[in-house]
Design brief:
The chain is α/β, with parallel strands linked by helices and about 450 residues long. The chain has helices at about 1-5, 10-20, 30-40, 55-70, 80-85, 105-110, 110-120, 145-155, 170-180, 190-210, 220-230, 240-250, 260-270, 300-320, 360-365, 375-385, 405-420, and strands at about 50-55, 70-75, 100, 130-135, 160-165, 185, 255-260, 275-280, 295-300, 325-330, 335-345, 350-355, 370, 425-435, 435-440, 445. It folds into 3 domains: about 1-20 and about 210-250 and about 335-450, 2-Layer Sandwich (D-amino Acid Aminotransferase, Chain A, domain 1); about 40-205, Rossmann fold; about 255-330, ATP-grasp fold, A domain (Dna Ligase, domain 1). Helix content is about 45%, strand content about 20%. The strands form 3 sheets. Strands 1, 2, 3, 4, 5 and 6 form a 6-stranded parallel beta sheet that branches. Strands 11, 12, 13, 14, 15 and 16 form a 6-stranded antiparallel beta sheet that branches. It has a 4-stranded antiparallel beta sheet with strand order 7-10-8-9, with helices on both faces. It starts with a helix and ends with a strand.
């Protein structure tokens, strides 16, 4: 299956770490930086960051890193902007925007940092603050930074604060002073922004674990059907059988009727209504379109009969050893955004759920993410945000946005199928989102040989 071929061990371990609230770091330096901010900061309640600086370069670097990790520059509220102007905290040519640029005034008058930090603490649009300042060590025109006063404001509002302290590499006493003031300080913008991003990840995982909720049990008919298939010794299900299981679990699929001859196919098409699609039904054929086993957009009986015969002939020629159960007749699905949701039972990690962009390009693009099943709604939202093509779900070049709340419910539901039922592999691909709903157009399911 697509899911099985892409579920490499490293991706599964990373998914497990995220769900357990564990943070992965790449270097010893990042380990120490992250430990510092976790030990010295309250949880981050959102992803909106206020920034105070007197130099542009590090602020640009920090902004890029924050954006890479899903944090955004806060939109300061009107009170904050008016106060910045009325209290003359900014140069006359500086707009009251975020990052708050104190220019040379902030370098020479360090009290401005404390005053602006107090504004950030009061601003409901700001969840955390990153302050960037050059030490000024050895400059007779610069007074010492009021670190203790800065630290007092930090604790007053219960919001995380990190400092980029541009000091010589041997300025250990200054970094010790920041520690004593209760503020995590870092020598570069990259390290400070990365630490703040890791704090955000840790805070989100803690919140998700506290709000964990699960779905009610499955209908008795569904459980009995899966165990019946398992006890029969035929573990690879035909498409219409797999769709019946999904339907009983409350997942919307195409209507699918198995026909063993032309007349049965015609009768099925009349029940479903034209246009219809035909798909070969065989446990020995995985990629049906590769052998001429899929015909779409059949509009009438004559076309259906002709397509039925051609499909049977094509499959018999290309895969002569395949066991043909018949042909599935299905309703056509309107065009829309195609995604994949699947699952696999890993021998070490256990049941796993996968989500990504779907269709025929899924294994080429490999834009997918994994989680250990079962997952929560928060887990599903994270999965949606993690794929590289997440913006496609918001509507792209005229396509309609995907109903993300419905998508979250779908991913959670499939994760519970993988967790509660003896299923080895499950591919729902493509799932087509159209007209504010979705339809599972194709599904592949393999039952586990053991319970």
């Amino acid at each position: 299956s697509h899911t099985g071929s892409m579920a490499v061990s490293q991706a599964l371990y990373e998914a497990a770490f995220r769900q357990a609230g564990l943070l992965q770091v790449r270097t010893v330096e990042e380990l120490v930086d992250t430990a510092k901010i976790l030990a010295m900061s309250p949880p981050l309640k959102g992803n909106r960051v206020g920034m105070i600086t007197h130099t542009a370069g590090p602020a640009v670097l920090a902004s890029d890193i924050l954006a890479k990790h899903g944090l955004v520059l806060a939109d300061l509220d009107d009170t904050t902007k008016k106060t910045l102007i009325s209290e003359r905290m900014l140069a006359p040519f500086t707009p009251p925007t975020n990052p708050v640029d104190l220019t040379t005034f902030g370098y020479l008058d360090r009290r401005l940092y404390v005053e602006v930090l107090d504004l950030m603490g009061r601003d409901s649009n700001v969840d955390a603050t990153l302050a960037i300042c050059i030490s000024g060590l050895g400059d007779p025109n610069v007074e010492p930074f009021p670190m203790r006063d800065f630290g007092k404001v930090t604790t007053q509002y219960g919001k995380p604060v990190a400092v980029v302290w541009g000091a010589p590499v041997d300025a250990h006493q200054e970094f010790t002073a920041w520690m004593e003031a209760g503020v995590p300080a870092y020598p570069t913008a990259e390290r400070a922004a990365t630490a703040l991003a890791n704090l955000c990840r840790a805070s989100k995982r803690k919140k998700a674990k506290e709000s964990r909720e699960f779905l009610p049990g499955f209908p008795k008919e569904l459980v009995e059907l899966v165990h019946k298939k398992q006890s029969s010794g035929r573990y690879y299900l035909l498409e219409h059988e797999a769709k019946r299981i999904l339907e009983l679990a409350g997942i919307r699929t195409t209507r699918s009727i198995l026909a063993v001859n032309e007349d049965e196919a015609v009768f099925a098409a009349r029940q479903i209504g034209y246009p219809v699609a035909l798909k070969i039904a065989s446990v020995d054929i995985v990629h049906k379109s590769d052998v001429g086993g899929v015909v779409l957009g059949i509009s009438d009986e004559e076309m259906l009969r002709r397509s039925f015969r051609r499909m049977m002939e094509s499959v018999a020629q290309r895969v002569p050893s395949a066991r043909i159960e018949g042909i599935c007749v299905q309703n056509m699905v309107p065009p829309g955004t195609e995604i994949i949701v699947g699952g696999v039972r890993d021998p070490q990690a256990g049941p796993v759920v996968m989500f990504g962009l779907g269709g025929i390009w899924v294994e080429m693009l490999k834009d997918v993410v994994f989680r250990l099943a079962p997952i929560t709604k928060e887990d599903a939202w994270e999965m949606i945000e993690e794929i590289q093509g997440a913006s496609i779900l918001d509507g792209f070049r005229g396509s309609k946005p995907v109903n993300k709340k419905l998508l979250v419910q779908l991913i959670v539901a499939i994760s519970h199928i993988m967790d509660r039922l003896p299923i080895q592999e499950l591919d729902c691909n493509p799932i087509i989102f159209h007209d504010d709903i979705y339809t599972v157009a194709d599904v592949r399911m393999v039952i586990s040989r053991t319970s």
